[in-house]
Amino acid sequence: MNLNYIKLGLIAVLMSVMGQAQAQSAGDKGVVIDKIIAKVDDYIVLKSELDRAYLEFLSRGELSQGDPKCQILESLVINKMMVAKAEIDSIYVLDAEVENNLDRRMSYFIQQIGSEERLEEIYNKSISEFKADLFDQIKEQMIVQKMQGTIGEDVSVTPAEVKKFYGLIPRDSLPYFSTEVTIGQIVKIPDVNDKRKEEIENQMLDLKKRIENGEDFGQLAKKFSQDPGSASAGGELGFFKRGELAPEYEAAALSMKPGEISRPVESQFGFHLIQLIERRGNTYNSRHILIIPKATTSDVEDAKQFLDSLRSAVINDSMRFEVFAKEHSDDQQTSGNGGFFSDATGAMKVSVEELDPTLFFTIDTMAVGSITRPMEFRMADGTDAVRIILYKEKIPPHQANLLQDYQKIRAATVANKRNQIMSDWFQETQGEVYIHVDPEFEKCRILVN
């Protein structure tokens, strides 16, 4: 279970390295697999980077004015330019920050795969080899993010700008959206009874005593901890800044001296036995043993009864669903939206093609406007929970329009405006670095004012 509040779904770089590993295998057989299509000082853009970014763009069904490949290439060149300019301006990211970022991403990915051993088996690479391959890419990405924060991060648009952007898109270039649905959920994680919590606290106090009597914390973490992201590393989490871990965990860790071990600490993730390893200014490294309480059948039934009472109230007044979700739902990703799922643009209309299979098959048997009885399910982080689902709306396949797709068009307008700001910065700054673009992409006119 991940302790970090920050969403760690950005694993594209990991997938990129894995793709490169497969491409390298092809290259070993004499196949020409890549070429440099742009260079900014000592930094290069590969054709494979452009191809991957373009395929990702197509998969998202985004709106674009002009040639999207040219726009993507310009974006990639600008990224390299920002890294080169950061070097000139002495803007840097510490290696320790990169390691911290990398550890969190790897922990998340290992959790999705199942185990370190499984990951190494699938890709024939050790974890240390993965991290070495990823280090430079993660560092470059973090430098770009740091530069973006000073160039055009806070961009807003007016409704008039959205309408104008939409009006400039050729009608035959508007994307065609597949069936979309508006669905919401109220999630209840069963409350574990006090007796079980007391048993876990006593178990952790026993582990604390064993460590104080000479047993190795790391070995006990490997044996007992239920945190898949850190157990194999002896419970060590790496360096985090204030505010990045659960507040109860952070408060306990920062109240100790290096080497000290806490009493059992309860957070939303379970019970922790924590040892502070090192503190560096505003960052700290710690390790823990996590034990996650399991709800009993009685606990689950109590959660179902609670949700059933909410369901009855919603049937009598559907407007109360959003209020109940905000007040009672234990799913942080949807509760802020009144329980409704949203796409990457923030629109509360989701393509059926993007739905989790369990959700898809659930609503496939429902009538629009209906709400399910409480159902047990497993959350993305592996937590067992109960939920009710509201099927509010179904939108048939259609071509993008302002009435049905305003949020998506607004997001495209913001992206276009941000790209223009970046492009202006590019034109102003390009004289400070060496830039070369392969003649194959001369039509993109990336170096033309």
Automatic annotation (TrEMBL):
Name the UniProt key words of this record, in alphabetical order.
Answer: Isomerase, Rotamase, Signal
Is Membrane included in the keywords of this UniProt record?
Answer: no
Instruction: Cite a single Pfam family from the UniProt record.
Output: Rotamase
Question: Is-annotated flag, keyword Isomerase?
Answer: yes
Q: Which SUPFAM superfamilies match?
A: FKBP-like, Triger factor/SurA peptide-binding domain-like
Q: Which GO terms describe its molecular function?
A: peptidyl-prolyl cis-trans isomerase activity
Q: Which residues form the signal peptide?
A: 1-23
Give EC number(s), comma-separated.
5.2.1.8
Enzyme class name: isomerase
Q: Which InterPro entries match?
A: OMP_Chaperone_SurA, PPIase_dom_sf, PPIase_PpiC, PPIase_PpiC_CS, Trigger_fact/SurA_dom_sf
Boundaries of every PpiC domain copy:
159-278, 281-376
What name does this protein carry? Peptidylprolyl isomerase
Q: What organism is this sequence from?
A: Reichenbachiella carrageenanivorans
